[in-house]
Automatic annotation (TrEMBL):
Native source species: Brevibacterium iodinum ATCC 49514
Protein name (Swiss-Prot/TrEMBL): FAD-dependent oxidoreductase 2 FAD-binding domain-containing protein
GO molecular-function terms, A-Z: steroid dehydrogenase activity, acting on the CH-CH group of donors
Segments of skewed composition (Polar residues): 1-10
Highest taxon above the source species: Bacteria
Keyword list, A-Z: Flavoprotein, Oxidoreductase
Keyword Transit peptide: no
Statement: the UniProt record of this protein carries the keyword Flavoprotein: yes
Disordered as annotated region, ranges: 1-27, 579-600
InterPro entries referenced in this protein's UniProt entry, alphabetically: FAD-dep_OxRdtase_2_FAD-bd, FAD/NAD-bd_sf, KsdD_DH, Succ_DH/fumarate_Rdtase_cat_sf
Gene3D superfamilies the UniProt entry points to: FAD/NAD(P)-binding domain (3.50.50.60), Succinate dehydrogenase/fumarate reductase flavoprotein, catalytic domain (3.90.700.10)
Length: 600
């Protein structure tokens, strides 16, 4: 049994050992009130809530301290909010009722097992329209003034998509979202309420009398790798730890392509791609899903997987197969691998899953954007904190310079120069030749591609258009936020004054898991019978961000960080309350209060 003493090699300085000046409180006979498995955002939120209630917390993670905050650190920091002050200042008329309609039509809940996902969706929308902004603001989080319009749908009021812009960008991006929870947890660590045990890999949930009472696993050899860099899996020793509550917050399956392929919804999206870029680090492996299932947990909606269609190879990778997502404005033309323009509404930023299906139906696993310099300057953003240094570093001067600049942002210019997916050309002949050099099979016919671009270009010569994408650009520019920073004025792509021409090869990119451990609204994990498993909680992506899949089939974006925060909050508060009841009732700390759990 690991005691986390100074001889434990997994606790070497700089590798994730406890920095508390009070030593190792849980090695002195004081057992924790809760064990949290996973030091990502949901785990930090749960720990924050527990320590606010005065509870002692032990946080385990298979990676080192450099990875504290998990995948949230790499994110753009987008948050889904409803009827916010930022929206109202931009004259966006949003409401909880409209958001509920958008969520319902996007989620498409249609299964018996969607009972708890529906309830989580309802609760999350109430949170996004109410407590969420104030809760984060009280922790010191601030937002940028421009609200983004993600997943626009474009195929009807009763189908998937955001009716209005709701993507609120954090001032400081993902690292700032992590910081506002990391700092209070580290303060609690210094006070002796939190113990971190990095390089501790959980392999089993300990059960007794139907309850989960602890964890078993192996310590791993020290790793001094930087955040996101793949670490070793050299095993050192066994450990066994016990607590009245275990909260699983270990994320999804985004770097486990074998598991993704096993559950990939071929009937809905098409065959699993031969080439898939990794949008998350190698440690996002989904191991705890099977471990929890082995302990009796119910796993639902495993086939609901959220991958992106606009992935590009990172020319400067951090983890194996590292891909970056382009967050595009509405003007780039989108072609399949053979050079055929996608039909409406398969436009950049409109409907991820519909376009995913359209791409895979071609029999190929990649596609192309064709655009020009004017479009890339204004409309290309790269997802990720490291690709947006001005926002991440909260530098207002550089951010304003970026908005005003006639050049593409520095990270975009780097991809144009070094990225293997980018073709920059002065003529259409050079452009198509470069596309064919990067082909993974088909040869694009020059004349066919160019004629499609010319047909589209003719639709920009006047204020009217029968081209649905050109209509969508006009619609986007009617929103001030898009007009300022995201949507360029319609113009001819082949107009040399807007050149050079650019083509970007787009691969599919793994990202989020929309199914997982089934939980009630307290974050208590359910068994297959629908009853709660005493002592076991879960939060974050391992729960499909709540209940086992609160997004249903589609995400409206800005909902992943928010889902980690909301589910971590609910699980942390419930576990703290349970710990309090166990103490006041005199029950053993591994007691089994069930709470609400049965299916209705």
């Amino acid at each position: 049994m690991s005691s986390f003493d100074s001889t434990d090699p997994s606790r070497s300085p700089g590798d994730g050992g406890n920095s508390s000046a009070m030593g190792d409180p849980f090695a002195q006979g004081r057992s924790p009130d809760a064990i949290i498995v996973g030091a990502g955002l949901a785990g930090l939120v749960a720990a924050h809530e527990l320590t606010q209630a005065g509870k002692r917390v032990l946080i385990l993670d298979q990676e080192n301290r450099a990875n504290l905050g998990g995948q949230a650190f790499w994110s753009l920091g987008g948050l889904f909010l409803i009827d916010s002050p930022e929206q109202r200042r931009l004259r966006i008329h949003d409401s909880l009722e409209l958001a509920k309609d958008d969520w319902a039509t996007s989620a498409g809940f249609d299964r018996d097992e969607d009972h708890w996902p529906r309830k989580w969706a309802e609760a999350y929308l109430e949170f996004a329209a109410g407590e969420k902004r104030r809760y984060l603001r009280d922790l010191g989080l601030r937002l940028t003034p421009i609200v983004g319009w993600a997943e626009r749908g474009g195929s009807g009021a009763g189908e998937h998509g955001n009716s209005v812009p709701r993507f609120h960008l954090t001032w400081g991006t993902g690292p700032e979202v992590v910081r506002v929870f990391r700092e209070p947890v580290e303060t609690a660590e210094a006070a002796g309420l939190v113990e971190f045990a990095f390089r501790h890999r959980v392999d089993e949930l300990i059960t007794a009398g139907g309850a989960v009472v602890g964890v078993r696993g192996r310590t791993l050899a020290p790793s001094h790798t930087a955040r996101g860099v793949e670490s070793n899996r050299d095993e050192l020793a066994d450990f066994e730890l016990r607590a009245p509550a275990v909260i699983v917050t270990t994320g999804g399956i985004g770097h486990n392509f074998e598991l993704m392929k096993k559950y990939w919804p071929v009937d809905r999206l098409g065959e699993f791609p031969d080439t898939m870029l990794a949008g998350v680090p190698a440690h996002v492996d989904g191991r705890m899903l099977q471990i929890a299932e082995d302990a009796g947990a119910s796993l639902i909606n495993r086939d609901r997987i959220w991958a992106y269609t606009e992935g590009i190879e990172n020319w400067n990778p951090i983890w194996p197969g590292h891909g970056i997502r382009i967050i595009p404005g509405p003007s780039s033309m989108w072609f399949d691998a053979e050079g055929n323009r996608f039909p409406a509404p398969n436009y950049p930023g409109f409907d991820t899953n519909r376009t995913m299906r359209t791409i895979l139906e071609t029999g190929h696993d990649y596609s192309w954007f064709v655009l020009n310099e004017s479009i890339i300057r204004k409309e290309f953003a790269l997802s990720g904190s490291e690709q947006n240094p001005d926002l991440t570093e909260k530098d207002i001067r550089i951010t304003l310079d970026r908005v005003r600049s006639s050049d593409a942002p520095g990270p975009i210019e780097a991809f144009k120069k070094y990225g293997s997916d980018f073709v920059v050309a002065e003529t259409t002949e050079e452009l198509v030749a470069g596309m064919n050099e990067r082909s993974r099979g088909p040869v694009i016919d020059h004349d066919h591609l160019v004629e499609q671009i010319r047909q589209r270009d003719r639709q920009t010569e006047h204020a009217f258009s029968k081209d649905a994408q050109v209509q969508a650009i006009h619609n986007a520019r009617s929103y001030l936020g898009d007009k300022i920073v995201r949507a360029v004025k319609p113009h001819k792509i082949l107009d040399s004054t807007h050149g050079p021409l650019i083509a970007v090869r787009l691969s599919l990119l793994s990202r989020k898991t929309l199914g997982g451990l089934e939980t009630n609204l307290d974050g208590q994990v359910l068994a297959g019978s629908g009853e709660t498993i005493p002592g076991l909680y879960a939060a974050g992506e391992v729960t499909g961000f709540g209940g086992g899949g609160m997004h249903g089939y589609n995400a409206l974006e800005g909902t992943f960080l928010g889902g980690c925060i909301f589910s971590g909050l609910r699980a942390g508060r419930a576990a703290a309350e349970q710990a309090g009841r166990a103490v006041t009732s005199g029950r053993p700390e591994s007691g089994s209060a069930q709470g609400e759990g049965a299916h209705s």
